[in-house]
């Protein structure tokens, strides 16, 4: 069975690759590759799946992933319903761990080396750091030769020294799936992302993979390190965070039912368990930023 890890996207003649992405979906399938990846969203909204984490994305979303971390950025269906001619837009930088050769082991590069170690668990950046990196990455396409490498090193240096980041995983995420299993997870992720606003039973999602509910439950937990019910709750909570921060005109009860929760009390309890604060506190904190 083939590995689902994609082959290198960097030609032997290049140190690193910068790509400008303009597509309906950034990643059509959940996948992984051997390169490090810095990814910036310039336009579009949706849900990103990185390893076993789930979070909404929008303009300015900035992540740095180490090798072999599976990922998928899935655009919101409503984004295209409201803007039929819209596409997502992003910039991605790919490079291998040894792209600097032995230089990475030198004293001057110790903090960048530490950054690479952190990236193996996945990183997301925010605040002034995110804005500065957004500017530098947008300029990178216009640089050539040595200037482009200097620009990349400047980006890495800023990321290595900032404290404006969150670690995505507590432990290194180990990618174990084969190609057929990746296809299965894609089916589940896309189904959940499309229908999470309504009730999804274990039976119906198990039927997607021609499994019994018990077998599917065991399979999903083994491959993602979380139960399907917890994954679905997390997907709904992250969407609620997006609505709480972006749609102030909607009250908490409206957001509760729009995200697929049946009762306000259950929504408040689940939100507090995942976010360590109530929806009201989250909205208040976000509005003061």
Automatic annotation (TrEMBL):
GO terms for molecular function: DNA-binding transcription factor activity; sequence-specific DNA binding. Signal peptide: none annotated. Coiled coil: none annotated. Keywords: DNA-binding, Transcription, Transcription regulation. Residues 186-285 form the HTH araC/xylS-type domain. It comes from the Bacteria. It holds the Pfam family HTH_18. PANTHER family: ARAC-FAMILY TRANSCRIPTIONAL REGULATOR, TRANSCRIPTIONAL REGULATOR MTLR. This is AraC family transcriptional regulator. The lineage of its organism: Bacteria, Pseudomonadati, Bacteroidota, Sphingobacteriia, Sphingobacteriales.
């Amino acid at each position: 069975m083939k590995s689902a890890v994609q082959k290198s996207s960097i030609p032997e003649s290049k140190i690193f690759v910068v790509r400008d992405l303009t597509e309906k979906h950034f990643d059509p399938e959940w996948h992984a590759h051997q390169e490090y990846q810095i990814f910036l969203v310039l336009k579009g909204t949706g849900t990103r799946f990185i390893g076993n984490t789930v979070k909404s994305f929008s303009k300015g979303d900035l992540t740095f992933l180490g090798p072999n971390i599976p990922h998928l950025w899935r655009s919101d269906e409503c984004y295209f319903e409201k803007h039929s001619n819209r596409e997502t837009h992003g910039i991605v930088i790919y490079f291998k761990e040894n792209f600097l050769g032995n230089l990475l082991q030198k004293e001057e590069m110790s903090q960048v080396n530490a950054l690479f170690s952190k990236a193996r668990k996945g990183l997301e950046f925010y605040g002034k750091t995110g804005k500065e990196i957004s500017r530098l990455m947008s300029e990178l396409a216009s640089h050539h030769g040595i200037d482009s490498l200097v620009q990349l090193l400047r980006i890495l240096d800023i990321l290595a020294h900032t404290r404006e980041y969150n670690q995505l995983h507590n432990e290194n995420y180990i990618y174990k799936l084969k190609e057929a299993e990746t296809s299965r997870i894609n089916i589940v992720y896309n189904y959940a992302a499309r229908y999470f606003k309504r009730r999804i039973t274990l039976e119906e999602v198990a039927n997607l993979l021609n499994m019994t509910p018990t077998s599917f439950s065991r399979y999903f937990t083994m491959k993602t390190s979380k139960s399907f019910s917890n994954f679905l709750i997390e997907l709904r909570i992250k969407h609620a965070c997006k609505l709480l921060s972006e749609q102030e005109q909607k009250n908490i009860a409206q957001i509760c039912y729009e995200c697929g929760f049946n009762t306000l009390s259950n929504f408040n309890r689940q939100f507090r368990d995942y976010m360590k604060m109530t929806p009201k506190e989250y909205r208040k904190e976000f509005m003061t930023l």
